[in-house]
Amino acid sequence: MDSKQRQLIKKYVDLVIDRWRLIAASLLVAITVGLAYYLYVPKIYQSDALLSYEQRQINPAKMDPEQGRANLGDTLATLKELVLSRNSLEKVITQFGLYEDARKKLPIEDVIEGMRKNVIVKPASRGDIFSVSFQGDNPQKVMRVTNSLASLFIEENLKYREIRATETSKYTQDELAMSKKVLDEKEVLMRDYKLKYFNEMPEQRASNLAQLKALNEQSQGIQNSIQELERTKVMAQEQMAWKQRMAPPRVANEPGAKVQQGETSAQRLQRQRVYLDELLLKYTEQHPEVRRTKQLIEQLEGAAGKEQTLPRKATASAPTRGNQSESMEIQRMQLQFKEIDANIQRLRADQAAIPAEIEKYQKWVDAAPVREAEWKGLTRDYEELRRHYDYLVAQNLQAQSAEKLEHNQKGSKFKVIDSARLPEKPSKPNFLKILLASIAAGLALSVGSIVYLEFVDTSFKDAGEIEEYLGVPVVSAIAYLEQEAEIQRKRFLRRLSVALVSLYGTILLAVIAFLWLKGMIIV
Length: 523
Description:
Elements: H1 3-18, H2 20-40, E1 45-54, H3 72-83, H4 86-96, H5 100-105, H6 108-118, E2 119-123, E3 129-136, H7 139-196, H8 205-246, H9 265-282, H10 288-309, H11 312-378, H12 382-407, E4 413-418, H13 431-456, H14 463-470, H15 484-517
Antiparallel strand pairs: 1-3, 1-4, 2-3
Helix pairs in contact: 2-13, 2-15, 3-7, 4-6, 7-12, 8-11, 9-10
């Protein structure tokens, strides 16, 4: 440390020593003013009530255990607005007679706004716990108002949750009814469309194609049957014509008999065998004409055997019986012709009805793609409507369960852990803070005063200031020699100042102690 720094420090120390009276006076005055301010300012008391937020133990959302868990911050913010509303606070002010002087001078809105500033709602850093505080000048009223505010939080929470549950239930019921109406209208529209175009729907296309194929096969089968019957008819006609040409001469007593030179049964049998060989070249053994010819051959074989064993008289009468058999055969074949014609007509009638059926099914098959596109457009939003309806049904059930819980007061609720107690000391003003502020203000005042006085005083204090001011070195300096009278006067003033400062300080401390003992000062 060089000499200039030492001189500067010595200068400041000397300055403080010389101005100690100013510093002491500033401190004493500042403490006195602070004490007067503390005694003048009305005492403000604060009472606290501690509440907890209990989550509901019964959860209506069975599938989602976390659903319905309320957030304390959001709930507390909502309830705080309800509790601190104008109606609630006005009732509290009227009930406990708060701010009587202010109500005489100010509008009720200003009084309520002032009370809001005195209500403090503070959530804890951990857990679902928060505190409600109220500040006022009357400890008894402060305690009762704090407990009343805590009760208001509990009551407003129950009413708010019940109202919200009721409104939620009503809203879900209205939404469910609206969704059901839209869904029913959609289902009626789909049902009418499906009933109107049932056979043209895409899901019927496979059955329509199968039915169309069956109709084509049926038409082809009928056509084959008609052709088969027509061939049978032609063969039967040829056979009947051949039989008529080859028939033996009839006797005189046979109706329509023609006199021809006779033919024996053996000769007829021979002709039928030749005819059977011709038929087997064209048809199988299951053909009706082949089977009929075989039966006729068997009959002729029996007749030929009888002719050989019977007497001539009997043989002479054989042609008559043969002619009768041939006549019956011809009649039977004519009946067969009629039956074949009737079957052909019936089959042709059935065949004539098939094209209309084929056209109908073909029309249904061709319309399937168009109906599919229309059905997709009709049902595009049906699944979403159905899912929304099912979701609303579940939400409505949960809302009804939640409403029942709130009506029974089984939902989330507030509970008072610590009720408000009578405050024993004021929270404002704080004597120690005012005392420290007064000391700081006194020191600041004294420093400011010293700086101001030094700035106003333009006299030189030492040789260095002269050298700096004139720019000329000082050769020598003559010390100031005080006289004995001046020394005695300064000594007297110093002692008097010390006595006064000590006396004032002692009195000030005594007053503070007395006020503290009387309870007027609370540390």
